Amino acid sequence: MNSVACLLLCLIFLSLSSYSQGINQANQNSSGVPLGPETDAFFSQVQKGKQKLPAGPPSQEDPFSLADLNRDGKCDGRDIKLFRKVLGKCARAGSSAMVSETDFDLDGCVTQKDKQVFLDLWQSCKNSSKRGK
Ligand SMILES: [Ca+2]
Ligand SMILES: [Ca+2]
């Protein structure tokens, strides 16, 4: 929990400092942004930390729906098949990453409750992709 809080604080701090850096950059119009592997590593850490946070309302900015299990951009029968494969399984060392991705209530196992959440997400994903085209 502490590390998550720290990550959040770091993230806020970073966005504030990069914001002011951005202003300086705009004024000076010079290069020299300290971007590099370390920065990338930090941001991927932050991303991981964010994913571990308790699920809030589904993010509208996520290009992929949580129900789009194979990340092909649409919710169809293939995603349902993938979900069925992990239904009833519990997350443990060596288990498919999909188990934790589909464990929506975070109780460690993919159960009927998760199936209900998945189907809701899948349905709205399917509807929104129809509207998009
Ligand atoms: Ca899909
Ligand atoms: Ca669950």
Give a topology summary.
Blueprint: H1 2-28, H2 37-52, H3 77-86, H4 97-102, H5 112-132
The structure holds calcium ion (2 copies).
Short characterization:
Helix content is 60%, strand content 0%. With 133 residues, it is mostly helical.
Can you describe what's shown?
The chain has 2 domains: 2-52, no CATH class; 77-132, no CATH class. It contains 5 helices and no strands. With 133 residues, the protein is mainly alpha-helical. The structure holds calcium ion (2 copies). One calcium ion binds next to helix 3.
Q: Keywords for this structure?
A:
single chain; 133 residues; mainly alpha; 5 helices; extended; binds calcium ion
Shape: extended
Distance between the termini: 42 Å
Strand % is under 5%
User: Roughly what is the average pLDDT, rounded to an integer?
Assistant: 81
Number of strands: 0
Biggest β-sheet description: none
Poorly predicted runs of 5 or more residues: none
> What ligand molecules are bound, each kind once?
calcium ion
Number of domains: 2
